[in-house]
## 1
Amino acid sequence: MAIERPNRRLTTILAADAVGYSRLVATDEEGTLDRLRVIRKSLIDPVIAAHRGRIVKTTGDGLLAEFASVVDAVRSAVDVQRAMVESNAGLAPDRRIEFRIGINLGDVVVEDDGDLMGDGVNVAARLEQIAEPGGICLSSAAYHQVRGKMDIAAQDRGQQQLKNIAEPVQVYSLSPMRAAATAPHTAIAPRLSIVVLPFVNLDGNSEQDYFVDGITESLTTDLSRIPGAFVIARNTAFTFKSKPVDVRVIGRELGVRYVMEGSVQGGGDRVRVNAQLIDTETGAHLWAERFDKPRADIFDMQDEITTRLARTVGIQLVAAEGRRAERERPNNMDAVDLAMRGWAILNQPLSLRRDRAACDLFDAALRLDPRNVEALVGLAFYHGNELRTFASTNREEQLRIAHTAITQALTLAPGNALAHFVHANVLHVSGATERSLRELEFAIALDRNLAWAHADAGFMKVLLGRAEEAEADLMNAIRLSPRDPGLDRWLALLGIADLFLGRLDSALDRLRRSVEINPNVAMPHFFLAAASALSGRATEAREARNAGLRLDPNFTVARFRNERRSENPTFLAQRERIYEGLSLAGVPEG
């Protein structure tokens, strides 16, 4: 009988642990946990990934990571410790978070779940325990791999008897990196970091407090769904309630780049909500919005207000981060910078010519970090849109790129609602309409505020011969985000549904509004041409046809006919009306 041997390999182990974790938590539990989450998400995880490391497991105050190269592991450790110096600068000593790090090259046992066991791991953990705060300890096995390859000054600490390790280990240490107590504050707040301060109840009516506080809590929850966002927990945010605040001080104290604040005022049968997004570095107002709503069902009103605010603020945050990267690091952008700049473009009204610049940014981001989820989703989204709008001149290649990118994104982030929405888009252009609708429903289950998914669910119903059901989904998308950059597309989809159902007057109205909002997309012009021709409006049909052909001179009725994307008999019969209208409008037959 064969003996099953454990799976072993030689690898580099990095063990890190926060110094004085219990003391920090006892002093300020929520603040410490919030800051540790920021440090992990915006500093440690990206550094380890950038140096091709893999996080094996985490604890409340530490982590274990694996590297194929000792040089990569040491570079990662040095980068983390240097970044922590910046993060701690200006903080009182009792509020600083410092790490000890140990690195070892050794033989390990690989468990089925990817965990690592054995002496190779134990030595790294014991090295971490004897490192000074802000310092790094290496075993001799690790040190000899980096000596002469890195510009580091290591101190030989001689043979050390480490706890529960049978043989003494030769230890080398790198000097601890510390922040000066009097240093000015230069902490680098994470990207997309924000705190929603408690909205102010201007009426002073205590009975309205629960509604005002509910807006703050719901906004905090909804903003947390933005990929890559760091949102300060509501318990910490509410410590600022009813206190005069300086947003720049709050930014430094909480380590956030942005503050959202607002007020609620009631009057008779109406409620007014004001909201502002502020840059904590400069104190500048980046965006402001006002809602005037009838005082109907207060919970429905709260839900509608917070949903709209969350969507708009998400777009504004990404745009602000894109501008910040261009301003501060124009020649040294990392993958996250590039991906955000790409999404800042995609979050504008659709323009395939402009969106190609977004595609270039996503490609550049993936060259730096092939595992950047936002760049993968953006790349798939761009290519899916080219296919969806019948603008592709290389269908199979673009479909391959989109499918590969979104599959990888979902592997890395299976709970990302936007990734599932884009996957649905790719399924749609692949002709898998039923699967696309199911994927959209799953995206909505993950994020009920994802207006794009509601809109596309309506369109999938058109393709499935259920055009009469589409309006409810599309109008829900508009309710969720009435000023959305995608509004022109949603109006066009409503117009298409009307065309399928023979509602020509409604189709004309919605398609006209679509091209007025965004005249830079060809397909709505062609649909408007079809609706105008079918309504006997020859001049308008000709103008819309010409506008479409200026944007897409290769468009033909035959090309459109060949891209059916559904074999539903009702859909195919209804689509004949579009072919007829395009032909009447004088669109080239092919």
## 2
Amino acid sequence: MNYKIKKLFKSWKIILLIACILLSVAFIHPTSSEGVAIRNVITNSSAALAGIPQPGPAIKPVARERIISINNVPIANTEDYYKFVSPLAPNRTIQIKTTKQLYRLTTRENFETVQLNGTEQKTITETIEKNATINGTIITINETITKTIAVPKTMQISMGTEDIGLRVYDAPKTNIRKGLDLQGGTRVLLQPEAKLNSNDIGILIDNMKERLNVYGLSDIVIRDAADLLDNQYIIVEIAGASEEEIKDLLAKQGKFEAKIGNSTVFRGGRDITYVARSATEARVENCNSIGGGQYACRFSFGITLSQEAAQRQADATRDLEVVYDTSSGRNDYLSKKLELHLDDVKVDELNIGSDLKGQAVTQISISGSGSGASQQEAIANSLGSMKRLQTILITGSLPVKLKIVKTDAISPALGEEFVNNAILMSLLAIAAVAIVVGIRYRKLTIAIPILITMLSEVIILLGVAALIGWNIDLAAIAGILVAIGTGVDDQIVITDETLKGQTANVYNWKEKVKRAFLIIMLAYTTVVVAMIPLIFAGAGLLKGFAITTIIGVTIGVFITRPAYSDFIEVMMK
């Protein structure tokens, strides 16, 4: 027996299997990490201002920054985290200790600005560009002017403590990335309304990623897909996000244009160099009842135009007439308004002050409105509309409009239940296979190696998934079970061929293994050919199942099956 064991560890096929198992365990990196991992840091939040960085999309799960304690209170899971931060009062300084460093942040009071009746005088300082002649040369210079304007009276309503801006989840125990089915979130299947080439698809995906990142969402997977009828699709998966948060943001093309008459003076994207987003620069105001039990609120925020866009605005206003305002007795406005168009629909129009005629002004104020059945709902809808408009102004429009084909929203609790059920079913399947094999051969020297080989395939497959960042979802788990099933079939073929040869007094082991592997390779080719169409079927939603199955059977055919054949040869010869 000792001789056979020594011979086993001299087989290069078995050595290769052991090396692959050790490497896979290293890639999976099982650990007993405590705390909560940071999924996302909201822009301009207390956490962002304290210097907590946004996690990179390519970072391994166990390498993510984790919160260990807050004010020296240990944080073991998400329940501990939210239990601590929920009752925090405004203007309180807290210390967050993570796996990387110690951060100090101050909670902020959440204010909503509401406009009151009446106006008040406000002095503002503004920098404008004007043409000047110096030594006979016309140049553009900046001039700072101070003026007093009438603005609506406002008041700030306290809404409690502002969210500190962290989205967390229980610290991952391995580098295996869980798919949306297992961790919760939203999956949206989108279809472009026009056919796109590969370059446009790339631009579309990049723009969508930027838009979602600006909107404050992370853990984003965006990929293109197609079905067997050559229909194009975009699949977006966002962990920890609700359907309402992303549905409109993704479906809308988001084409923003500001027009004066028939002239487009600036567009969202490259024409905008800065968009005000802080609480002091972007506000909701003037909330009033509009009848029928409805309320409406207006929002406003400032933007900075590029010099080219400012010049286009100057050219468009140069020949406009100044309109005399009878209520104020002054020449206040130009004869045409600045019209704001979103997806080719006019959403608002703004008067242009007479002092802006022919001036290449880069500072512009944007406004809009939102409504609801109550004042709080109107404020919330106004904030949502403002946030979406700000995002489109920053990122620009998508190359084409998208149609929502399907949305799937999965809660984290349901995802955890899926994980538990998947693990339970996998263990039951392995146990059932072990029992059947044991009854069939009634030899531990055969049943145990088959079980070990089966578990080895699972470990190596998960190691490959951890290495390449492949998400393991319910479809992938089904693929793993298929790979295990085909692996057991192949091992039974190898075993039966060798035992049949022994009974028939045929002792040419190479011939027996060759005969077994001919059957195995034919079965392998059949499985791979059958899986290839599934990669594209169903708009790519079955891609995880197909790819996982192909990787699993490939690992089995080229790594685990040869090692098992050497084991059988040594032990049974």
## 3
Amino acid sequence: MKNLMKLAFAFLVLLFVACSEDSSSVAKPSLEAGSVAFTGWVVDSLDEKSNTIFVSPSKGDESIVVENLDALGGASIYLAANADMVDPDIDWDSPVEKGLEISLADTNSFSIVVLDEQNRTIAVWLVKYLKPETPSSSSDKSSSSVASSSSETGKVESSSSDEKKSSSSEKSSSSEASSSSELESSSSEIESSSSVEESSSSEAESSSSVEESSSSVEIVPTKVSEISIPGAKVTVEGAKIFIDAPYELDLTKLPLVADGKPFDVTRPVEMELENEEGEIVTYSVVAGTQLPGSDFSARNDFWGTTSDAMAISGSGSYKVPVLGFTVDVSMKSDSANAYFRDGKMTLITQTVIGHSTGFDGGWKMAGGFYFAGSYSGVDGASLYQADNSDAGADNRAADFSQYMTHGKPFTARPTGFEITYSYDHKDNTNDTYPQSCLIYVALVSADNKVVAAGYINDSGSVESETKNVVLTYGNDAGLLSAGFVGTTDLKQGSGDEDVASIRVMFASSTLAYVADGGSSSQMKKHFRGAEGAKLIVDDFKLLY
């Protein structure tokens, strides 16, 4: 009886989780018949749309032998030590290779993990099938067997037997399976139908009932109305469900339904759900988030700025031109250069002037910078001297971007960004570094590859207007070659990498993160920014 309980029907449910962090990511393979094979099991059909490979046993072994898994890609494959489809434990002692025999005696499923050359997870596959249930003379046992299957496959329900009596051939198979003499004389028929060990008519009826009940076991789709995330807004548009989630939520493990099962929704997830009309529809579920403080109603710690340091006096050294000796000098701007009022942020390019006994000296010019990240400069001296004694307070350039830390954690994949802004352009006299404003967004992988990017870089005044900027995946849109602040440590990605962080920059003077300066007689000669250049940002949001 134990052997017979393992043969009624089988199916395999497949889930794909992309976890690569660089361009070695392997795209979902195009499966063809014969590209995945197990000895003793037949691959009946391949349904790439639902990521399902349907298989059935060709004989009654209590094991399955790996024959060919090349189509799954990767550098190596291992058995998973648990059933976690998002972050599985890998059984490093069990590499999955041709000829590996996996016992099915005590389980109806097993997971395999596909890894790249650096042993990073590319995909997780769940091999799952339902064992055939032995029919019993009691309806209670029949119910119990279905419940057992339910506990292993999730929420299930059984349709009425009338719905499943669709052909005379099914009835014939059931009646044939009720005879123990026929069982002994035709093993092939026994393996392909529900079987019993005793020949009473009551057991035959029970067999038919179990066959029909088992074949009707199916996953019950969740209703669209049950998709609910605390603090998030759920929007349904046609066959797309968009979850506007709070920034703090982990989009790689978002519980979409009441049972708490986590889904990685950083990329679209296909789900069969029941709509308001009771129809089963395949929806593409996508989640995204907006950045904290992107309404600019007030300063937010998600963002870093050079403005705080500008307005604080700090001591530095001033190298007197021609004479070459240095004097101590205090350096500060007249005020900060980032302002928040009426839901708008204003960034202004300003000078910092060094003050010493009897004279002023060491003018430097820098733009207003507000960016996703942090800034460790504490005063005017550290900002414009940038710990460089040769730069000091004289006319040499000081690169204060060394105090900037760029990027904040982020995993979503927006298609672009929308921004309402205006820009008041002022000319400078530096032909090598012309004045312009800057707004950019870069999605970055864990190994500092640009997954997607887009930017605005205006060299002339802009009246208040709203622009939509597309983020191009697998293309930096020219961001890396432009020499913008916060991009020099990045390299081009393929666009398939997982997003790990986001970089956003707002600047009133694009290249004035290097603060050039000079004495009173040449203060306008080297400036990379123009005094009074102004960028006003009214609203900013990511598009999905």
